[in-house]
Design goal:
Layout lengths: L10 E4 L5 H12 L3 E6 L3 H13 L4 E5 L7 H13 L4 E4 L15 H29 L2 E6 L3 H4 L5 H21 L4 E8 L2 E2 L1 H4 L7 H4 L8 E2 H12 L10 E4 L9
Pfam family, one: adh_short_C2
GO molecular function: 3-oxoacyl-[acyl-carrier-protein] reductase (NADPH) activity
EC number: 1.1.1.100
């Protein structure tokens, strides 16, 4: 029987939900039927706006705040969400620390530590806090937002690439450890994506980038969110341990 992409009755946590990509992921999961926990660190006004928007769609939403790179935050968020809306079926690790890119010789050591904390340790803390419930109910979706940069290894990408490649290793091991509980663990790897910020400003010069993309364009944030929704659904029930580029073919994992 053909299944539909239906998240009705599911509870999803999106970290970094007020960010350019996070907000579209949250809206898309809600549009597919899920109730949403919107995590933010600083932008409370945007979190409240998203909460009202999702509630207007007929879905439940809660906003939760905290530095997701700290070990005490994820357990606190788990308790807040559990007591308010119930157990989390879908975790989307989307939050990441932003920083200025430069060469290895000039990049500050704290930038490498920050990327490790937000790419690797965030997911470790989230797994420890939320996967026990998924094990209990024998099912769940754990989804991380990676990047095509992890395959490109271009100049000035070192801290970001190091963090995301570390994240990749963690997700592959976690997928093997929790698969027996019917929990899937996957990564979506966007390319240079068009977001709300781009649409509200002057068009950028992206010809150099799109020249290397087989589909000859940049992806839309909605296209990234669509891939997340697919992985969150029962349609992806036999996919785990995957790193899925959503970048028009700009990078292609090889066998």
């Amino acid at each position: 029987m053909l299944k539909q992409l239906d998240l009705t009755g599911k509870m999803a946590l999106v970290t970094g939900a007020t960010g350019q990509l996070g907000r579209v992921i949250a809206r898309t999961l809600a549009d597919c039927g899920a109730n949403i926990a919107l995590h933010y660190i600083n932008n409370e006004a945007k979190a409240q706006e998203l909460q009202r928007e999702i509630e207007s769609m007929g879905k439940q939403a809660i906003i939760v705040q905290g530095d997701i790179t700290r070990p005490e935050t994820a357990p606190r968020l788990q308790e807040q969400i559990q007591s308010s809306l119930g157990g989390v079926d879908i975790v989307v690790a989307n939050a990441v620390i932003q920083y200025a890119w430069t060469t290895v010789l000039e990049q500050a050591p704290e930038d490498y530590l920050g990327q490790f904390e937000s790419c690797v340790m965030q997911s470790v803390y989230l797994a420890k806090a939320f996967i026990p419930y998924m094990k209990e109910v024998k099912g769940g979706r754990f989804i991380g937002i990676n990047t095509e940069c992890a395959m490109q290894n271009f100049e000035t990408q070192s801290a970001y690439t190091a963090g995301k490649r570390g994240m990749d290793g963690l997700y592959r091991v976690l997928a093997k450890e929790v698969g027996k509980y019917q929990i899937t663990v996957n990564q979506v790897a966007p390319g240079w994506t068009i977001s709300e910020r781009d649409r509200s400003s002057e068009p950028g010069h992206d010809e150099g980038y799109t020249r290397t993309v087989p589909l000859k364009r940049r992806g839309e944030d909605q296209e990234i969110a669509n891939a997340v929704a697919f992985l969150a659904s029962d349609l992806s029930s036999f996919i785990t341990g995957a790193y899925i580029p959503v970048n028009g073919g700009n990078v292609m994992p090889a066998i």
